[in-house]
Design brief:
86 residues; mainly alpha; elongated; Spore_III_D
Length: 86
């Protein structure tokens, strides 16, 4: 694996763990696609750093369990904003 890819994998993985970030937030922060982040943390990271891969998986699993809540809150905020404009 090329060195710059390994560096990116470690940077994005550390960002996810330190900030409890979602794949989308991480992708936005680093200016890369969600697909790249996902491939980095699910396929490349376990080959580079198994312990970090486990930590990242825990954060992503937690985010997956909570995403329906975040979606509901976003919808609620959207309608409250529209309601206040009227």
């Amino acid at each position: 694996m090329k060195e710059y890819i390994e560096e990116r994998v470690l940077e994005t993985s550390n960002y996810i763990v330190e900030n409890n970030s979602t794949v989308r937030q991480c992708a936005r922060q680093f200016g890369i696609s969600k697909s790249t982040v996902h491939k980095d943390v699910s396929e490349r990271l376990p080959q580079i750093n198994q312990r970090l891969a486990i930590k990242v998986r825990e954060v992503l699993d937690k985010n997956k369990k909570e995403r329906h809540i975040r979606g509901g809150l976003a919808t609620k905020a959207k309608y409250e904003k529209n309601k206040s404009l009227n």
